[in-house]
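Render this sequence as a predicted structure.
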Amino acid sequence: MGIEARSVAVVLVLLIIQTQATKNWHDTIPSKPTEVFGKEKVTNLHFYFHDTISGNNPTGVVVARANTTAQYPTVFGLLAIIDDPLTVGPEITSKLIGRAQGLVGFASQEELASLMALSYVFTDGKLNGSTISIVTRNPIMNPVREFPVVGGTGLFKFARGFANVKTYWANATSGDAIVEYNVTIIHY
């Protein structure tokens, strides 16, 4: 264990001891994140998101639909749950590195746009068990979209950043799509 890792471990143990020694449920421990977690890092990720809503094994399923959804070409009022694979390459057979899990709701009456609340759960290598959270509006027909990274866990504690996203492939009949992600994350 390096000096920096030992320092973080000592600070965390002290924080736990101090927290356990207090009687109040609401004590605040003043500190700067750099004193606890060290220097900020920047991580760049590149992966593909596979959204399959057709066939026998869909990764996105409709869980609610308004009575008026059929009246809108934008499927306004539809809510889906997804568990989409994340891969290194655009082929579904390329290396699986994680999954995007969460809610997608179609929130516009006038354009094909969704509201997404997703956790990107990484399962490969040193990122195994780490997540990033993206909560955003997705104007699906725009060639390039920018999504905010609003948090994370594991190696991505205190994450913030953005994802540049573009549709790599889409099938208008089935609704299936492959989406390319370039993500920049600032974290401790």
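Summary. The mean pLDDT is 90. The CA atoms of residues 30 and 123 lie 34 Å apart.
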